[in-house]
Write a structure and sequence with these properties.
The protein is mostly beta strands. Helices cover 1% and strands 43% of the residues. It is globular, with a radius of gyration of 18 Å.
């Protein structure tokens, strides 16, 4: 990320082993801490994959999956297709060279790429640092949709779609509430129809300075997952307790739940928020 976003208060984020607090809300779920599960080897040792959200997660039914992926320098995933699902890749560290059908794109730390379903793809770690990224699939990933090896020989060309790439948060939609707040919507199919975004959730990025706090808010009919890239945040929800979310983990907020966030640390907290279905201004309430 090339520029530092100075965020004192974030009144609303636009979006993106497990423990939970007192159940709350229509989904019968409270705040939930989501940490990556034990990683397993993928593509014959080329990388490691750790689910954050899968079908066994203690959440209401989700229409996307999320995983933390690491690939050592010089390694790459062999060509494969994910049939019927779009993959969002957010690079946390390193540089990825991503083949997307006939196009190759470079995606660096703090950048995002959204690959349409069915493209022939491979991801290579091309910097000296280990490549670490979030992989989000909608519909959720299953092994049945992952076509690789001999299966590619009989698999027709399903897509020649173009990836959506966000190089800097400022390329998205900036929201400033005249309180020292800067929030950037990175992808939102509702607010960015011209981009042809092939998902129905939204993703936003923000930084919160030490001591900064997010104003109390509620997203009507929408779940929110807050992934902490760096630092730590604390989510507080009336009747559902307090949840500390360290870097590398995510905090899940059920739909319609009133909550706020704070940065209790001494360094900036960098976060991604995933709102599902996609964030709409008329479906958000700022409660002070």
């Amino acid at each position: 990320m090339q520029k530092i976003l100075l965020v004192f208060l974030v009144p609303l984020l636009l979006s993106a082993a497990c423990t939970s607090t007192v159940p709350d809300g229509p989904d019968n779920a409270g705040l939930v801490l989501m940490t990556p599960l034990d990683p397993f080897v993928i593509f014959e040792g080329q990388g490691h994959y750790a689910f954050i959200i899968d079908h066994d997660s203690p959440l209401p039914p989700m229409n996307y999956s999320m995983a933390y992926v690491s690939i050592a320098p010089g390694n790459e995933t062999p060509p494969h297709r994910l049939v019927g699902t779009s993959e969002l890749i957010y690079v946390i560290e390193g540089t990825a060279s991503i083949q997307c059908d006939n196009e190759t794109i470079m995606v660096r730390e703090g950048e995002l790429a959204l690959l349409p379903d069915g493209v022939l793809q491979s991801i290579a770690a091309v910097s000296q640092a280990e490549l670490r990224y979030l992989s989000v699939n909608q519909p959720p990933y299953t092994s049945e949709i992952d076509i690789r090896g001999d299966g590619l020989a009989v698999s027709p060309v399903i897509s020649n779609g173009m990836p959506v790439v966000v190089r800097d948060p400022a390329e998205g939609i900036e929201w400033d509430y005249n309180t020292g707040t800067l929030i950037y919507t990175l992808v939102n199919p509702v607010l960015m129809p011209e981009k042809g975004i092939p998902i129905n959730y939204s993703v936003a990025y923000a930084e919160i300075l030490p001591g900064g706090r997010v104003a109390k808010n509620r997203l009507i009919g929408r779940t929110e997952l807050i992934y902490v890239i760096e630092g730590e945040i604390v989510i507080t929800a009336p009747g559902a307790g307090v949840l500390r979310v360290p870097a590398g983990s995510a905090g899940f907020v059920p739909r319609d739940m009133v909550k706020d966030y704070a940065n209790p640390g001494k360094a900036n907290a960098k976060i991604l928020t995933f709102v599902d279905p996609a964030w709409r201004p008329e479906q958000a309430e700022i409660l002070g």
